[in-house]
Amino acid sequence: MVLQSSLKNCLQLSCIFRTPKAGFRSTTSGGLIIQSVSNDVYQNLAVEDWIHDHMNLENLRVLFLWRNSPAVVIGRHQNPWQEWLLRQKNIKLARRRSGGGTVYHDLGNINLTFFTTRKKYERMENLKLVVKALKALRPKLDVCVTERYDILLDGQYKISGTAAKLGRTAAYHHCTLLCNADKSVLSSVLKSPYNGIKSNATPSVPASVKNLFEEDPSLTCEMLLDAIAEEYATQHQIDHRITLINPADETLLPGINNKTEELQTWEWVYGKTPKFSVSTCFNMFYKDSVLDIKVDMDVKHGRIEDCNIDLPKQWLPPALCSELVKSLTGIKFCPNETTALVTTLLRVCPQDDELHSRWNLLCENVIMLM
Amino acid sequence: ARKFTDKHEWVSVENGVGTVGISNFAQEALGDVVYCSLPEVGTKLSKHDEFGALESVKAASELYSPLSGEVTEINAALADNPGLVNKSCYQDGWLIKMTVENPA
Hints:
By secondary structure, chain A is of the alpha+beta class. Helix content of chain A is 34%, strand content 26%. Chain B is built from 3 helices and 9 strands, in the order βββαβββββααβ.
């Protein structure tokens, strides 16, 4: 079912990708199924952007199949500080351009993107197609679509979540499907930490999840992808062959590498966060005393706009405190930048061990909020 | 007079300032708006530029400028009450105000 791109296929694809305005003339009669050879979340999200921006979908529909190595993906208007707890070194954080909530991807999860013109945007139909494919594969599977556009297993476990983006003329609906993802990592990274954040960013709705593999250990991601592609081809009466594409191929997808880079910038991932405020009180333990600290910050475009730190009087020299607050204003709400800043500020302080250790303790606590 | 684009944004110009919003058809199609992403005051827009997005039921729907001009005001009420776009798309649910480069 899955073929390496034949030369003919490649040329057809080039035709579609390079002459979007010339309309679509091909034997694949109005539909295309493509699968990414990459597991990089940024590259794959860039493919979605590219198709949305450059392909003429007037008489064409596209199904894009992709999987990512471990990544947390937040929605367009979400707050990453609110959504994920553990910054693990081998888990990437990405912000997609569609709405909705936060999801965890790994190779045990498959992603499906349904591209159409804006007029033919139809999420329910797409999800029913997926359910039909699953039932064709395993007739006894108890799967159904909810009003919230989730797919549930056994009436209670979420196995798929949906999000969408509507552009000027094109639209896409994408969804996940849990086959054999690592649920322990999923639940540990999607914990919502309470750290005093107040914002109107779109919140995630937590759900109990389950892998299809748990229901039927004979199921693999490949089987699911094939079944869904087959059902898509049948329903839309198109060629059932899946064309592999390389998201790094600048010849096939001119401009794709710029899109990939943009998705990885701090400005996109963190800077696009809707304005929020942090307001928190905590105890700091220093030698034999317990200190009450209050921190208030307004963060806009990921940068600290306004900052206030309430400390017990004279615990640190007031001039130093106000210097800290002043310097924090305008920098990124980011542990690395803040660490660099406070280290620099410390250098201009008198060499006083007591002072240094108090300063370090305070700054560590402030940085932990980020 | 309120003019409509084919994408269901409307614009109403008075004294050189255009107020932009979305039509009733558009707000109905969107469903309940939960978030409005609007540009900064001072942003210069060309006709058809993407100037923001509305999010509803997990779909981010882009907004396109019906005019060329500069953003002078954004509807701050939408931050806490994005549902105004649904309840009053022609009045309280306006999105941005902008100067008009080519009154036409």
